[in-house]
């Protein structure tokens, strides 16, 4: 697994954001590499000298890090060579999804200023992910970050995971600004049935509230990716959900159907929640057929390509982030490995036995 947090030392009094480089760039937040020996990289920047433990084989050149001198760590907020950079802006959430891979916490550490600095230093044309918790619980800070960054860096774009519970009529004018065309909102819908959706997210009235938000987002011309995690609770209802999406939400850009991640709450509930699409592909296949027939751009996430029948394989994306992705030993000769997301690092190993190199 690619490490995102590294031990670090610094005499600075407070945390700081800096971009690491062999030569110092034109920004006063750039730091220059002075030496790299014995697994310790020594840098010089406006804050003085600091070190970062660099694991063998890990290239830090161009990374944008948040160094916390008190905690003795450097967080790799934006890795220069990666398309999978996501900023976790809060761990608070007002839902409690039964399969949440990142269970919420009550505490909140406001790091929006550091995240804004980091985004301003991002490589050209980056797409930066934002997730939580629920980012829109801090909607004022979030929108300010987006507008500040996109105002200064028109080459950047954002993808934001949100439960869609907090968009209001008052947001519409603001979200109509041109800069929001570079923002895509990834919003989950788990069922066309209100009771079922609300049970999955553990919040009464959640789907009704979400439908209101969709009205506001539609009025704002917002770009939306709809997301559905497949669970034993909703799997057989996917064809109905496909019709709901096509008829009620035809303005979305994509519909992403996702396999379960064995992390967070799902880890202890795996046997009850996980549904093996290879054993029973019919509900998923019917949902795909409906979606495709009705003109939706549908995608499969967190699903190895060889586990999908050939006629649907073009929909299976390499969606798992590089830092938490693994392949089975048997994947080595596969010709479609570059297009395949493989497995989550922590996915049960018995799935490895089912891979069939393409
Ligand atoms: S063999 Fe491995 S790399 Fe190839 S499609 Fe299957 S899981 Fe993906």
From TrEMBL:
Its cofactor is [4Fe-4S] cluster. It comes from the Bacteria. Signal peptide: none annotated. GO terms for molecular function: catalytic activity; iron-sulfur cluster binding; metal ion binding. Keywords: Iron, Iron-sulfur, Metal-binding, S-adenosyl-L-methionine. SUPFAM superfamilies: Radical SAM enzymes. NCBIfam families: rSAM_pair_HxsC (TIGR03977). PANTHER family: PQQA PEPTIDE CYCLASE, RADICAL SAM DOMAIN PROTEIN. This is His-Xaa-Ser system radical SAM maturase HxsC. It comes from Sphingobium terrigena.
């Amino acid at each position: 697994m690619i490490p995102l947090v590294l031990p670090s030392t610094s005499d600075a009094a407070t945390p700081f954001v800096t971009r690491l480089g062999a030569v110092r760039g034109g920004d006063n937040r750039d730091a220059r590499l002075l030496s790299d020996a014995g697994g310790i990289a020594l840098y010089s920047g406006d804050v003085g000298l600091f070190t970062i433990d660099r694991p063998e084989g890990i290239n830090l050149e161009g990374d944008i890090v948040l160094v916390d001198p008190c905690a003795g760590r450097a967080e790799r907020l934006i890795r220069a060579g990666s398309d999978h950079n996501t900023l976790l802006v809060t761990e608070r959430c007002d839902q409690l999804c039964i399969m949440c891979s990142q269970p919420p916490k009550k505490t909140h550490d406001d790091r929006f200023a550091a995240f804004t600095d980091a985004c301003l230093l991002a490589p050209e044309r980056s797409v930066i992910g934002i997730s939580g918790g629920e980012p829109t619980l801090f909607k004022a800070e979030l929108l300010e970050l987006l507008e500040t960054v996109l105002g200064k860096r028109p080459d950047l774009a954002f993808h934001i995971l949100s439960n869609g519970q907090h968009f209001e009529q008052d947001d519409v004018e603001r979200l109509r600004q041109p800069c929001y065309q570079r923002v895509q909102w990834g919003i989950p819908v788990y069922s066309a049935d209100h009771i079922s959706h609300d049970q999955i997210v553990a919040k009464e009235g959640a789907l009704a509230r979400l439908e209101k938000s969709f009205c506001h987002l539609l009025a704002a011309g917002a770009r939306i990716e709809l997301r559905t995690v497949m669970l034993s609770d909703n799997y057989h209802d996917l064809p109905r959900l496909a019709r709901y999406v096509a008829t009620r939400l035809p303005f979305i850009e994509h519909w992403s159907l996702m396999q379960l991640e064995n992390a967070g709450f799902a880890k202890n509930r795996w046997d009850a929640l996980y549904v093996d699409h290879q054993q029973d592909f019919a509900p998923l296949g019917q949902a795909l057929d409906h979606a495709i027939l009705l003109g939706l751009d549908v995608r499969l996430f967190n699903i190895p390509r060889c586990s999908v029948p050939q006629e649907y394989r073009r929909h299976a994306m390499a969606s798992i982030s590089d830092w938490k992705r693994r392949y089975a030993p048997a994947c080595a000769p596969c010709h479609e490995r570059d297009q395949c997301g493989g497995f989550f690092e922590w996915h049960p190993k018995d799935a490895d036995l089912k891979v069939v190199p393409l």
